[in-house]
Amino acid sequence: MRASQIMSSPVIALDKDRSLADAIDCMRRAQISRIVAVEGDRVVGMLTEKDIARELGSLHAYRLPPSRLHISSVMTPDPISVAPDVTAKRAAELMLDHDISGLPVLEGGKLVGIVTKMDFAKVCMEYDDVYVGQVMRASPLTVSPADRVIHARKLLLEEEILALPVVENRALVGIVTTRDVAMKLAAFQEVVPDKYKSERIRNLLVGDIMTQPPTTVRTDTRLPEAAKLMLEKRFSALPVLNLDGELVGLLTKTELTELARERL
Predict the structure, then answer these.
(1) 49 with 107, same domain?
(2) Which of 107, 140, 234, 253 is the most exposed place for a label (fewest CB within 10 A)?
(3) What are the φ and ψ backbone dihedral angles of 76, each rounded to 5 degrees?
């Protein structure tokens, strides 16, 4: 199976000198997690939600709204790319080995598409013999609604994870993702006056930005059902409950990619 056979995520390319605000607007409208940065016809970088969360939550960026930042100052330069005929298995290996979630697909040096971890949800929809409980990440890190967003951001970035279930009094009440953090920080940077930014961002709580109630699956859910849900709703992660309704794991697009790598 070739990477070109599974790539389905929308690919949007913007000039590296466009504003970060333009990129964020495109990502919101297209419901995508990354923008390919170009200079002319040449791919020069990749801008992801993780990059945005890292930049806009840093102290030096508190007074710089996305409209005053360029894509080039936030993007990861010189992204790893693949040709259309690379195998899907090799694409999965590259993403997992380098901790990246998307690969520009180039043909003759020109951008023709993108293959992402989410695309492997399509592959996993064929694995009817697998249950969520077999591949989930057990005992995931969690946060509470009263935790600060800057704490959740730190966990997401330092632990290199995609999402954090939100737990209150031992009950699952929400989920906060890298996308939630990136987009909320971007919105704050644009609308909060400069003199209040630092205080407002520092005091922003997880409960203010989390998705609630979270969409969940169970340990006995067949993987194709969960993979289809993630692909259709563009969910990067799903909290996993046991038969008693207790949070026991997290299924993310990374686990789907790992399974695809093993089976392809």
Answers:
(1) yes
(2) 107
(3) -90, 120
